[in-house]
Design brief:
2 copies of one chain form a homodimer.
Chain A: H1 3-10, H2 13-24, E1 27-28, H3 29-33, H4 40-52, E2 56-61, E3 64-69, H5 71-86
Antiparallel strand pairs in A: 1-3, 2-3
The structure holds a DNA duplex.
Chain lengths: 87, 87
Amino acid sequence: MTLSKTFNALSDPTRQGILELLKKKDMTAGEIGKHFNITLPSLSHHLNILKTADLISGLRQGQTIVYSLNLSVFEEVSKSLIKFFKK
Amino acid sequence: MTLSKTFNALSDPTRQGILELLKKKDMTAGEIGKHFNITLPSLSHHLNILKTADLISGLRQGQTIVYSLNLSVFEEVSKSLIKFFKK
DNA sequence: TAGATATTTAGATAACTGTCTAAATATTAT
DNA sequence: ATAATATTTAGACAGTTATCTAAATATCTA
């Protein structure tokens, strides 16, 4: 995953909001959706971008899909950013 | 400046390249342009986005405009990012 | 097997973005 | 003043993106 892709995934307010929510706890798509004024298909689109950037994972549990942060990737991205800014 | 705006400014490979160059030394638009296969107007567009995001400054010195990193803003953004990822 | 619930996929559309060429502006030198 | 150099601004265009509605898929329950 390139740094550009990651920055792009992070550059949308809705996606940032999704990540902020998932920092607190894992949530289903429906639960996440209640926090934004967009339709579920639009939300699904954002979830897919975050998944493609490897920032989150979705795990089906019965009828719902539970989303969670990929903490290790988060850590890695954080390090890349610090490196980018500090060097 | 919002974090979204900053991420957006950072999400383009050309703009990342410009920042990498300016980390080394201040440069004029023309000097920067030599490192990329885009026209000067396109480059100017990217410089403007970085300026709007407050990541760089341009100072006219006679016939040329010398661009430099806004180091304090860079520092600040770096801290915001760390906070975003760590909390 | 139906029906209900949760989520995604498909397809359309308006807005945004990166790029270009041509023209404009600013400065310097003759 | 005129010409040359450096950079930006204006306007157009193709590709991408965020959004929507409608339909499809997956799971659970009766």
